[in-house]
Specification:
Number of helices of chain A: 9
Shape of chain B: globular
Oligomer: heterodimer
Helix content of chain B: 25-40%
Structural class of chain A: mainly alpha
Strand order of the largest sheet of chain B: 7-8-9-3-10-11
Distance between the termini of chain A: 58 Å
Strand content of chain A: under 5%
Structural class of chain B: alpha/beta
Distance between the termini of chain B: 48 Å
Number of helices of chain B: 10
Largest sheet of chain A: none
Strand content of chain B: 15-25%
Shape of chain A: flat
Radius of gyration of chain B: 18 Å
Chain lengths: 222, 263
C-alpha cells in the first residue's frame, strides 16, 4: 500500500472552497453563540429563582445535555414537519450557535462571578444602575478572563462544524467526502482534511493568544 | 440630571443622614440592633468599636449596599429605606450619587486609567463632556496630590495612592456626604498618613463625613462626634474629648484600653 496524494491535490479548489464554507459557518455560528451565550450567562446571574433564571438554566440543560447531531437533525429534518424549511446553511449556523452558546454562557457566568464583588459595589456606590455597571465596569474585566476558555470553545466549534456536512452543506468535510467518492483515496483525503482543520484551529489559537496578551499589556487585568 | 437631585435643595438644619431604629441581620445573626443616629451638615462622625460590632454594616446601609430589615434611613431628606423597603432602583441610584463611598480595598476599576476611574461617573451619570470631566478630575487629582498619575493604571499605584484616587473618584460626583469604610486598614503603616491627610483636608473644607476607622489619632483630632459601637448597638456617642478621656460606659473603656495599649 502506498500513499498517493495526487488525486487530492487535483481537487485543491474544492478543498479550498470547503474550507471557506467551514470558516463561514463557524464564524456566523460563533457570533450567534457569543450573543446568546452572553445573554444566557447574565440571565443565570439574576438574583433568586426568577423566571429568567429558570429559562436560562433550562436552555443550558437542554443544549448542553443533548447531542449536537440530534439538535442539527431536529432543525433540518424535524422543523419541515411544521412547514418550516430553513436553508441548510442557516440550519447549520443556528444549530452550532445554539449548542455552543450553552457552553459560552457558562464561561460568561464564571468570568463575571470571578470579578471581585467590590467592583460592582464601587460602581453602584457612584450611582450606576446595575446594567451600566455591568457594561462599563464588570464586562470589560470579565471578557479578558473569558478569552482562554472561549478559545477552547471556538476550537471545539470549528471541529464540531464538520457535522454540518450531514445537512448537505458543502463544508470542508463534505468536499473531502465528494473527492473520496470519486477517487476512493480515503486515507489521503482525510489526512489532508485533518491538516486543514488543524491549520484553522491553530491559527484561531494563535489569534486568541495575541488578543489576550495585548489586553493584559493594556492593563486590563490586575 | 434627574428630578431627585434637583429637589435636593438646602435643608436648613435638617440632618444630612437621619437613622431611626435600624435593624439588620444576616440569617440568625443580628448585626445591627436598633441604631438611632443623625449626622448634621459638615459634621465629621467617626465610628469606632471592636471588629464584628456592626460598624461596616451600619455604614453600608447608609448607601443601600446592605438592606436593613427594620428602621428608617433618610439621606438629604429622602427616605432611602423604610422598614425593610428600599427606595426604587432609579431613585436609589440618584440618591447614591449624593453619597460618596470609600472602601477598605479601594475598589478602583483596574481596566481604566486613574483619570478614567474618576471621570466615568460624571460622564455616564452627570452628562459631563469628556473635556469637562477631565478638567474636573485633574483638579481633584491636584487636590489629592496625584496629578502626575492621571494616566497611570491603578495596578502601578501604591495602596495609599490608590485610596487617594478612590477618594477623588467619589468626590467627582460632588456628594453631600462621604462614607469611609476603614479607608486605611489595608494600607502599609507608612502609607496611612497620606490618606488621613487628604481626609483631614476634606473635613476642613466642610465635607460631611462618616468614617469607620481604627485610627484613634484621627478620631481625636478630626471628629466632631465619636460613636462607639459594640454588638450591633451604639454604646455611647459624644465629642472625642469626652469619649477618649471620660468615657461613661465600661464597654467603651474596655475597647479603648485594648486599642490604645497596643501602641
Amino acid at each position: 500500500m502506498e500513499l498517493d496524494f495526487s488525486p487530492v491535490l487535483a481537487g485543491w479548489a474544492d478543498i479550498a472552497h470547503g474550507a471557506a464554507v467551514t470558516i463561514e459557518v463557524t464564524a456566523a455560528s460563533l457570533i450567534l453563540s457569543c450573543a446568546i451565550g452572553l445573554l444566557i450567562g447574565i440571565g443565570r446571574l439574576t438574583p433568586g429563582r426568577s423566571v429568567v433564571y429558570g429559562g436560562c438554566s433550562a436552555y443550558v440543560t437542554f443544549f448542553r445535555g443533548t447531542p449536537l447531531l440530534v439538535q442539527l437533525f431536529l432543525l433540518f429534518f424535524g422543523l419541515p414537519q411544521f412547514n418550516i424549511m430553513l436553508p441548510a446553511f442557516l440550519c447549520g449556523v443556528i444549530g452550532l450557535g445554539l449548542y455552543s452558546a450553552s457552553y459560552v454562557s457558562e464561561i460568561v457566568r464564571g468570568a463575571i462571578q470571578s470579578i471581585d464583588r467590590g467592583q460592582m459595589e464601587a460602581a453602584r456606590s457612584i450611582g450606576m444602575s446595575s446594567s451600566l455597571a455591568m457594561r462599563t465596569v464588570i464586562l470589560p474585566q470579565a471578557i479578558v478572563r473569558m478569552i482562554p476558555p472561549l478559545g477552547n470553545e471556538f476550537i471545539a466549534l470549528i471541529k464540531n462544524s464538520a457535522l454540518v456536512s450531514l445537512l448537505t452543506i458543502d463544508d470542508l468535510m463534505h468536499e473531502g467526502q465528494k473527492i473520496i467518492s470519486v477517487t476512493y483515496r480515503s486515507l489521503e483525503v482525510y489526512l489532508v482534511i485533518a491538516l486543514v482543520y488543524l491549520m484553522l484551529t491553530s491559527s484561531t489559537n494563535y489569534l486568541l493568544q495575541r488578543a489576550e496578551r495585548r489586553l493584559r499589556a493594556g492593563g486590563m487585568v490586575q | 440630571m434627574n428630578a431627585l437631585s434637583r429637589e435636593l435643595a438646602p435643608m436648613g438644619d435638617a440632618p444630612i443622614v437621619r437613622i431611626r431604629g435600624l435593624k439588620k441581620s444576616f440569617g440568625a445573626h443580628t448585626v445591627l440592633n436598633g441604631i438611632d443616629f443623625d449626622v448634621a451638615l459638615s459634621q465629621v462622625v467617626v465610628v469606632i468599636g471592636p471588629s464584628g460590632s456592626g460598624k461596616s454594616t451600619f455604614l453600608r446601609c447608609c448607601n443601600g449596599l446592605e438592606q436593613p430589615e427594620g428602621g428608617t434611613i433618610d439621606i438629604c431628606g429622602h427616605r432611602l429605606v423604610d422598614q425593610g423597603v428600599m427606595l426604587k432602583e432609579q431613585s436609589l441610584n440618584a440618591l447614591r450619587t449624593e453619597v460618596g463611598m470609600v472602601f477598605q480595598s479601594f475598589n478602583l476599576f483596574p481596566h481604566l486609567s486613574v483619570l478614567d476611574n474618576i471621570t466615568l461617573g460624571p460622564r455616564k451619570l452627570r452628562g459631563a463632556s469628556k473635556d469637562e470631566a477631565a478638567a474636573a478630575a485633574m483638579a481633584l487629582l491636584r487636590k489629592v496630590g496625584l496629578e502626575h498619575k492621571a494616566h497611570a493604571m491603578p495596578a502601578s499605584l501604591s495602596g495609599g495612592q490608590k485610596q487617594r484616587v478612590a477618594i477623588a473618584r467619589a468626590l467627582a460626583m460632588h456628594p453631600r456626604v462621604m462614607l469611609f469604610d476603614e479607608p486605611t486598614s489595608a494600607l502599609d503603616p507608612e502609607l496611612v498618613g497620606e490618606v488621613l491627610q487628604v481626609m483631614k483636608m476634606l473635613a476642613s473644607d466642610g465635607m460631611t463625613m462618616v468614617v469607620v476607622t481604627h485610627e484613634m489619632g484621627f478620631a481625636k483630632e478630626v471628629a466632631d462626634v465619636v460613636v462607639v459601637m459594640d454588638a450591633g448597638a451604639i454604646v455611647e456617642a459624644g465629642p472625642p474629648q469626652t469619649i477618649f478621656s471620660a468615657p461613661t460606659q465600661p464597654r467603651t473603656r474596655a475597647f479603648l484600653q485594648a486599642v490604645l495599649s497596643r501602641a
